[in-house]
Amino acid sequence: MTSHEVLNTADHAELRVRTEAGSTLGDAVMAALVVPQEFRQVQAHYPIVFRRDAENGEFSALALFGFENGENLFLGEDAWDARYIPLSISVRPFLIGRSRDEGGEAQVHIDMDHPRIAIGEEGTRVFDEHGQATPLLDEMSEKLGLLHAGYETSKHFFEALARYDLLEPFVFEVPLSNGSKQSLVGFHMINEDKLRSLDADALGALQADGHLMPIFMAVASLSNLTELVVRKNAKEDRG
């Protein structure tokens, strides 16, 4: 369940948010949406894969944290074991919404049903005693702006991938230390052969539109699948 409200000092003057990590706080997820503008940071830690929506056929990009639903192999006791957390994860329980007026400006909303909403004196304040934004809210507002801009422009990125037919489905076999295997299915990745076969004009167009760098970052990120297997086996060995 979600309960979105426009964030304001009148209704949320005493609001506090929990900022630590934890499975009970919504961090036990297999993957999270990412936007091309953050691919450089994401690829340093996580594989970047693509998923096609079964209803509308549109693609989205995901940072992969595990190999099965609810598995986050980067989640520790109260922190992430990674220097970068994708924007769509780190902004919660805040989100971008729009006013009811057609074409209204984007607004900061908050999901009051999210487990990160603190009770009593727990958590970090969103507004100070004078009704001014705290450093937490300033940081969240900046991240929301980056995420919103990324969503707005990612459509062109996926259009470019489709134009050059650069996405292909793949199956990844996860070799477990107990001798069994687990298969990762249902995702797409960049087809490196087709990328290498693009002519100078196509590569120039991708570069001019700012798409070439995130494509390369997505390709480079797949080396993290090996590290993800290492984390998976370490978890299995711990029981």
TrEMBL record:
The protein's name in its UniProt record: SapC family protein
Pfam families associated with the record: SapC
InterPro entries registered for this protein in UniProt: SapC (IPR010836)
Domain of life: Bacteria
The organism's taxonomic lineage, starting at the top: Bacteria, Pseudomonadati, Pseudomonadota, Alphaproteobacteria, Sphingomonadales
